[in-house]
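Chain A, query sequence.
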Amino acid sequence: MTDAAVAAALADAHRREWARVLAATARAARDLDLAEECVQEAYASALRSWAATGIPDNPGAWLTTAAKRRAIDAIRRDGALRARLPLLVEPEVEPEPAPAGDNAAADWERTEDAMDPATPAPDDRLRLIFTCCHPALAAEAQVALTLRLVCGVATADIARSFLVAEATMAARITRAKKKIAVARIPYRVPRAAELPERLRAVLNVVHLLFTAGHTAPSGPSLVRADLVERALQLTTLLRELMPDETEVRGLHALLLVTDARRATRADASGRLIRLEDQDRLRWDGAALAEAEALITGCLRAGRPGRYVLQAAIASLYAAAPCYEQTDWPQLVALYDELLRVWPSPVVALNRAVPLAMAAGPLAGLAEVERLERDGRLAGYQYLPAVKADLLARLGRAAEAADAYAHALALTANEAERAFLAGRLAAVAGGRR
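Chain A, predicted structure.
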């Protein structure tokens, strides 16, 4: 077996199987640090073993068995050490029985799940996702843990996404894992009564991950494709594990319809292309069709939530033959419903765009100025950017230039900065 073939197979197994292998190992180890260490060792040993014996028919099963065996061996060694040195390690406690095999390790959550007979037997990957997104952890820690443990993203890459040093991110991840252990956060899917709040946290993490990839917060490129792909993988996984959850399907539809435009959002030089100027014939028709089917099914189910409505809005933008023929009144109505279920100032700002198209730029500008007075979007670069565009449409070039300059000062992504600089130069020169 060639080294290249083994490396390719292992890379594919990392992409497809990492979450499954780590989740199964965590179930045996009852410790996230130990589980992660054992999985990493299993992948390293696979590189050597597969080169000698060939790639197994089921790489994921091979890796899971290897990682779990290492975890169980480590637990046994730890148990033996504690038995020999009880007074030096900790006060004497009733010892746990040593695991006898892969299926002998107790589940962290067994007692709690048994308390709720309505809870179905969950996939270990789902347990892992909900553990990473526990509300006791800060939102930033939830995202970092999900990237590290569920997606297998290297700590250095996560640090770059958060614009911090690798050592800083490593420390944050370590603290989050310690909090899980010290606070005895259970490794389980929430009971039915807890699920709405906990599922919201999971979906929020995935959406934040996608958003950070769709428009990178900083750097030379408009898109971080790796983060977009990770988010799409997670929504695919969540749909597989929770097929009846409408908001899970809604989030997947939102990501599909939004990412369908990826190839047309920047030109060959990396310059940003506005939605109205994008080549709609180059959009991903298969992704749009899949998203449309998901949205239709979700809307028929009744009482759409935040992600279903966001997906419906994005799909309505995409369905128009051209930007000018977008159904602006319908978009405003959808935004009104979205504001009802998710009263966010960002939603209100986004609503100002179709409002200005449906009722004129003065109506949109009035809404933007109301949000300025509100203050919750202070420092949000898209507010002065939207304001500048509306002012330019009204022929108020000097005010538009000031607003574009404000937006430019708040923006770190180089593609967006170049676009704003161009718009600033245009209005400063007396052009729209």
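The longest strand covers residues 218-219. DSSP finds 20 helices and two strands in the chain.
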